[in-house]
Write a structure and sequence with these properties.
alpha/beta, 23% strand
Length: 193
C-alpha cells in the first residue's frame, strides 16, 4: 500500500488536509480489512520518514501489527515501525476541546511483585472518555505502546485532586522509573524488533 503510492506519501504535506485525508482514508481502509483495530501514524517529513503500525492499544491486534511489519517491503526512504514508540512527552495533547499539558500530570508507579501498575493523575479528569484517550496517548508517548500493553498490569486514571497512598512523581520521570522497576521484576517481556 505504501509501496504503491510511496512518492505521494513521502512528499505529503501535512498542512494539505484534503490530500492528507484522502491518502490516510485509503491506507486505513486497507489496514482495516486485515484487522479493524490496526491503525497507523506517519512521522514528520525528513530524509527517512517513519510509518508506524499500531494496534490502537488493543493487545488482541498485536499479531496483526507484527505480521504487517514483517511483510512490509523495504523502502529506502521509509522506516516501518511496529507499535507506537516512545516519544518526547513534553507536548500537550488535545482532543476536541480537551487539552492536557503533561507538565501538570503526575503518577504513582506500583509494584505487585510481578508487573507494574500505575495511577495517573490528570488535571480536570472526569469520566469523559476523551480524558482516558489522552491518558493512553500520554502513556504510549512515555513508554511506547508495547510496554503499556504488556508490562502494565493496571492503569487507574484519576483527577489530580484524588487522594491515594504513595509518592507522586512528575510525568516526565515515568520512563526512567518504569524502566528501573521493570528491570527489577522477573519475566520482562522482550519487545519485538
Amino acid at each position: 500500500m505504501v509501496q504503491d503510492h510511496e512518492e505521494k506519501f513521502f512528499l505529503l504535506n501535512p498542512e494539505n488536509e484534503e490530500e492528507r485525508e484522502k491518502l490516510f482514508d485509503k491506507v486505513a481502509r486497507k489496514l482495516q480489512k486485515i484487522d479493524r483495530d490496526v491503525t497507523f501514524e506517519f512521522g514528520p517529513p525528513q530524509a527517512v520518514r517513519e510509518f508506524v503500525l499500531s494496534a490502537g492499544g488493543i493487545k488482541r491486534a498485536f499479531p496483526a501489527v507484527l505480521l504487517l511489519t514483517k511483510a512490509a517491503p523495504s523502502l529506502a526512504r521509509w522506516k516501518i515501525t511496529a507499535f507506537r514508540p516512545r516519544r518526547d512527552t513534553g507536548y500537550s495533547i488535545q482532543i476536541g476541546d480537551t487539552l492536557v499539558d503533561p507538565a501538570r500530570v503526575e503518577f504513582i508507579l506500583l509494584n505487585n511483585g510481578k508487573r507494574a501498575a500505575l495511577e495517573l493523575f490528570i488535571p480536570g479528569m472526569t469520566d469523559n472518555v476523551v480524558y482516558k484517550q489522552i491518558g493512553f496517548l500520554l502513556l504510549d508517548a512515555a513508554l511506547g505502546e508495547f510496554d503499556v500493553e504488556t508490562n502494565l498490569d493496571g492503569i487507574d486514571m484519576l483527577p489530580t485532586t484524588a487522594r491515594t497512598a504513595g509518592k507522586r512523581h512528575a510525568f516526565r520521570e515515568l520512563p526512567a522509573l518504569f524502566d528501573q522497576l521493570i528491570a527489577r521484576l522477573d519475566g520482562r517481556s522482550e519487545k519485538p524488533s
